[in-house]
Hints:
alpha+beta, single chain, 7 strands, seven-stranded antiparallel β-sheet, Pnp Oxidase, Chain A
Amino acid sequence: MSLADEKYLLLTTLRKSGKTVPTPVWITPLNDGTMGFYTSSGSGKAKRLAHTSRVTVQPCNSRGKVTEGTEPTDGTATTVTGSDLDEIRTKITDKYGFATKITKLLGTIGGIVKRNRIPYGDLGVVISVPGSPEATTQD
């Protein structure tokens, strides 16, 4: 199974200090052997990716617990908008269905409650890993 076929990947980004920040994300394969997800331009992931494109990815569950028998894979991530973002949104919605609507609603409610509304899913992230699309996980 390829990394992009996993339900969740643990995306680890780097702060300017070098400290790692792991975050579980939904992921979808893209046509060119890369994989992608969307996030808010105001998210920590987006801020960290603005200063370094280095990431690691590893299969995990929704809470970020890595899948036993897997290892982190180094990669690079770039942010995208426009038609590239539209492609990612469509593929994520096709893969995860109604859950995408629920997360958007919960994000909106959370932003209202915390009085910190940030845009939802206005930035795409494309991840390339060595050997894609052959980068696979152990079954």
